[in-house]
Amino acid sequence: MNAPHHAPYGDGGFPATRPRRLRTTAAVRRLVAEYRTRSSDLILPAFVREGISEPVPVSTMPGVVQHTRDTLRKAAVEAVEAGVGGLMLFGVPVVKDPVGSRGTDPDGILQQALRDVRSEIGDELVLMSDLCLDEYTDHGHCGVLDARGRVDNDATLERYAEMARVQADAGAHMLGPSGMMDGQIGHVRAALDAAGHTDTALFAYTAKYSSAFYGPFREAVASSLKGDRKTYQQDPANAREARRELSLDLAEGADMVMVKPGLPYLDILRDFTESADVPVGVYQISGEYAMVEAAAEKGWVDREAAILETLTSFTRAGASVILTYWAVEAAKLLRAQS
Question: What is the pTM for the complete model shown?
Answer without folding.
Answer: 0.91
